[in-house]
Amino acid sequence: MPIVSGGIDSTTMLFFLASNNYRIVEVLSFNYAQKHKIETERAKLIIDYFAKVHYKIDHQIVDIGNIGKIIAHGALTGNADLPKKMYDTESQKITVVPNRNMIFLSIAAGRAITIGASNIGYAAHASDYSVYPDCRPEFIETLDKALLLGNLWDPVHLVAPFKHLSKTEIVKLGLEIGAPLELTWSCYSNSSRPCLECGTCLERTEAFMNNNISDPALSEDEWQQAIISMDDKRSMSIK
Ligand SMILES: [Zn+2]
Fold first, then answer.
1. Highest mean pLDDT range out of 72-76, 82-86, 156-160?
2. What mean pLDDT do residues 90-94 have?
3. N or C, which end of the chain has less CB nearby within 10 Å?
4. From CA 97, how far away is CA 70, in angstroms rounded?
5. How many angstroms separate the alpha carbon of residue 195 from the centre of ligand 1?
6. 234: pLDDT confidence band, cut at 50, 70 and 90?
7. 133 Cα–ligand 1 center, Å
8. Cβ count within 10 A of residue 118
9. How many Å lie between the centroid of ligand 1 and the Cα of residue 184?
């Protein structure tokens, strides 16, 4: 049972797990009072696409908006502004929502046991290690043990196939296995099109540039703008 946000990592993971003989029963997405709610809409489109190329799966959108409000913090759920530059550890910290992934995974474990699923797919990856401690292998291994100890009679495991992959490597894999990256959404701003300037947009642009391919989610004009934006931010960080 993968957690799918509608972004590149979790979308690639969904298709990766299916092509590695995991039987997907259900997919979980979360509404946690994030400003960029469009990602959940994209998750729906991605699951519809999955039904066309694989098989139909249920999609649970878990609404924890009230919990999101009491832990509102930083730029994703709180009042802080999004950093409009390439991420470094300090600027990316503003995008941390306290204990978010632990909350997601805990709910996912309860749901997995309820529907008889034995694994939870978690798309943590290596590019997020420095600022998101809950994406590190130590956290994943420890939580896997805790979930087992807490649910001994109904064991459930964390599967995190990308824990050692970078964003660039995930894009490469997604392209290779035919994941619908054109349907994914990464931008953290609350707008109908990607802003192309926030740290997450820039990280996404960089990953496609590293793969020598334009972002299939963007129009040709938007891609050109994304490259200009990338060059601007790079030259700013050199100065
Ligand atoms: Zn953006």
1. 156-160
2. 60
3. C
4. 11
5. 4
6. confident
7. 23
8. 15
9. 13
Rounded Cα distance, 105 and 87, in Å: 25
Choice between 237 and 202, residue whose per-residue pLDDT is larger: 202
Alpha carbon of 150 to ligand 1 centroid (Å): 38
- The pTM assigned to this predicted structure is 0.90
| Owner of token pair 């995008």 | 95
> Both tokens of residue 15?
């298709």
Query: 151 alpha carbon to ligand 1 midpoint, in Å?
Result: 39
176: CA distance to ligand 1 center in Å? 25
Identify the CA nearest to 158 among candidates 202, 208, 108.
Answer: 108
**Contacts of residue 203, Cβ cutoff 8 Å, sequence gap at least 6:** 86, 87, 127, 167, 186
Name the CATH architecture for the domain at 8-180: 3-Layer(aba) Sandwich (3.40)
Domains of the chain, by residue range, sit at 8-180
How many angstroms separate the alpha carbon of residue 188 from the centre of ligand 1? Answer: 5
Buried b (16+ CB within 10 A) or exposed e, 135-161: bbeebbeebbeebeeeeeeeebebbbb
pLDDT digits (tens, 9 = 90+) for 162-190: 999 999 999 999 999 999 999 999 998 87
- pLDDT at residue 130 tops 90: no
Cα of 238 vs centre of ligand 1, distance in Å, is: 21
The secondary structure element, H or E, covering residue 169 is helix 167-177
Ligand 1 centroid from CA 197, angstroms: 5
